[in-house]
Amino acid sequence: MKLNNHALSTLLELVAEGHTLGDACKKINVSYNAVYRKARLDDKFREALAQARSQGKPSFKASTIDRSRESFLRRLRGYEVTETTQTFDGEGKLLTTTTTTRHVPADPRLLLRCAKYIFNEDETPPQDLPCIVFNCAPRPDTSFSETQNPN
């Protein structure tokens, strides 16, 4: 698609819905570089793009949280994986196709780390555990502070 007014308005709508600029460019078949060049040269479009991004941030954050929660729960419960193996002869012709389904069990280390926070509401989980599952605010990073520096 050519970078015309219709394409630009569609792009802005997609970004306002929470899509990244790269995803929006792919959906309307426009080069990311062309949009970047347009934003760099046209102040009006740059402002419209910034406004669309600010509108899209809450929905993008919500979808990211949903995907993160989904992935986290999938690891806690275990899941099925379908694997397909193809065998070819010396000439490159397909001989056999084998499809197997295997079960990936739940991650016991993740389960043990989470159990402590699920059953004890007084503690907050560390930052590397998704706090969205536990409905708590992430802890501030205390890995380094100036008071700990001996120099």
Q: Any overview of this molecule?
A:
The structure is a single chain. The protein has 6 helices and 2 strands. The protein has helices spanning 5-16, 21-27, 32-41, 43-77, 108-119, 131-134, and strands at 79-88, 94-104. By secondary structure, the protein is an alpha+beta fold. The N and C termini lie far apart (59 Å). Among the domains are: 5-69, no CATH class; 108-140, no CATH class. α3 (32-41) crosses α4.
Write the layout of secondary structure elements.
Layout: H1 5-16, H2 21-27, H3 32-41, H4 43-77, E1 79-88, E2 94-104, H5 108-119, H6 131-134
Antiparallel strand pairs: 1-2
Helix pairs in contact: 1-4, 3-4
Number of strands: 2
- Overall mean confidence score, pLDDT: 76
Question: Between the first and last Cα atoms, what is the distance in angstroms?
Answer: 59 Å
- Percentage of residues in helical conformation: 40-55%
Describe the largest sheet: 2 strands, antiparallel
Task: Give the topology string: H per helix, E per strand.
Answer: HHHHEEHH
Helical run tally: 6
Order of neighbouring strands in the sheet with most strands: 1-2
* Class computed from helices, strands and strand pairing: alpha+beta
Return residue spans where pLDDT drops below 50 for at least 5 consecutive residues.
134-151
Kindly estimate the percentage of residues that lie in beta strands according to DSSP: 5-15%
Principal-axes shape call:
flat
What is the rounded Rg? 24 Å
